[in-house]
Structure formats: structure tokens, C-alpha cells
Amino acid sequence: MRVPLTSVVVGVDGSLGSDRALVWALKEGRIRDLPVRAINVWQPSGAPLEIERLAALHSVADLRAGLLRDVTSSVDAVVAREGAADVATTSHVLYGHPIRELTRAAGSDSLLVVGSRGRGSTTGSLFGSVSQGCVQYATGTVIVVPRPEPRPEAGRVVVGVDGSPLSVRALRFADDEARRRHASLQVVHAWSPPYLGFAGGPGGLPQEAVDEIAVQAAETLQESMRRGAIDAMRTDVEIRLVEGSPAPALLEAADDADLVVVGSRGYGGWKGLLMGSVSTQCVVGSPCPVAVIRSHADEDDK
Description:
Layout: E1 7-11, H1 16-32, E2 36-42, H2 48-55, H3 60-81, E3 89-95, H4 98-106, E4 110-115, H5 129-137, E5 142-145, E6 156-160, H6 165-181, E7 184-191, H7 207-227, E8 237-243, H8 246-254, E9 259-263, H9 277-285, E10 290-293
Parallel strand pairs: 1-2, 1-4, 2-3, 4-5, 6-7, 6-9, 7-8, 9-10
Antiparallel strand pairs: 5-10
Helix pairs in contact: 4-5, 8-9
């Protein structure tokens, strides 16, 4: 049973990265007709200026009211700039650890949108600790928005499939997102001959074996489309069978995409691993937002 989405939750901290995440969240709210909850999670940093500010306050209520006023003002400014007054948007301030509070607020029935890096990230870091933690521990879908300058919309959503149940969920999500955005859908399945090490000998696999693996890869792609209920003959659907590693293939496709969608872990990941190498590489290296789809124990992905 699929969990219906009830809202879009976005983490905000006043940084450029969080502003871009908020812009993306507002668009998600509009195309899905969902309310947007902009959440700032506060925890003491020990900075001298913060200590001075706290010392001047008379109560915790004053602190909360001041923070909420600042957050609301910042969010309202972005909403006005983006012409998103039609999207029901509320601002909230929570106290605690950002990862725990954001993932708890989103639950499994909200989209969680975060910037790749915020104020708390180390300068030069490609993948901030909060965004990384949200992708690792969220129970629902997380969209990570990178910090590069916004690009013109490409009108394309890219999704990676590998035949796993989670990649089929990613395919369904990507198709829904593409339809809502009036964009095309590009489905990518990457394959490569297995590495045999010393057992492979100097010549590697015979060509007949490589050809058979290619045929199996094509069948995996077709079966994924069938299970995802996607008609490959649709004019807005493009399927790509790529010889090579999955992450580079998806990152290449991301250069001309509005969104890349991946499962948090595919057949290549170890059982119990929270996030696979392909999804990690996509979140770290993609120039466009990446949606990471997580599994639900009560959902039928067959």
C-alpha cells in the first residue's frame, strides 16, 4: 500500500542553499497541490554573537518568537520573489538536532527537501552533514537541491533502474514527477560485464558471453518498465541502455535534466545498507536536484 503525500517539508536556515531548496519545495507544493512547511531547526552553537543575543533575552518564549519572526520574514521574502503566494506555506522553528527533527517532521508521508549544503556545512564540502543525514535516515523521499546557479528548465526527468523493487518505485515517482512538470522521462539502465579478476585471463569474457549479458540487461530494462506500468512507446519517454557504470551514466544524463531520481539502494548494495554507492555518487555529483526514494515495508513493489 502506497503512502499518500500530505505535505512538502523543507529545511531552511537562511543560507543560499536553503533558499534554493525552498524554491524547489514551493514548486513541488504547487504541482502537487500540497502545503509547504518551512522548518528551521535551532540548536546552540556557542558562537560569541549568539551568546550575547541569548543573554539579552528575557525568556525562552522571547527566543522562539524572535527566531520564528526571522524565519517567517526570510521565507515570505522567497515566496514573494517567486510569485508563490498561491502555495500554502507556513514557517516553523524547532529545537533539537536538525537531522532528527527534519526527518521526524517529514515522516513517511511528506517530501523532504534540503539543500546540499547549509550554514552548518564545512566550506568546500560537496555534501553537507544535514543533507547526508536526512538522506540516510529519512523514512520517506528526500530531494537534495545543489547550490550551483539555477539553470533554465530542461524539461526532462531522469531515473535509474536496475530491476530492483526500489528502482521500480523510483521509476513510478519519476514518471509522476515528469507528468506533473510536463517534462519528458528518460529511463537509464547501465550494465557492464562482470570483473573476473585473475579468473578472467588475458582475453576476458568471450564476445558471446558479453552479448548475452547485453541481452539480459535489455530484458531487465523492459521488465522494469512493465512493473512500473510505463509504456515505452510514449512519445515523452526515452529509454537508454548504457554499457558502463550506473553512477557515471546517470551523472552524464543529469547535465541536461531538471531532476534525477534514484532508489536509496539497488541490487548492488549490501543488505541493510541505508544508502548505496550509486545514490551517494548522484547526490554528491549531480548538477541538478536528486530525489532519493526509500522503501516502505508495507508497499508492494512487485
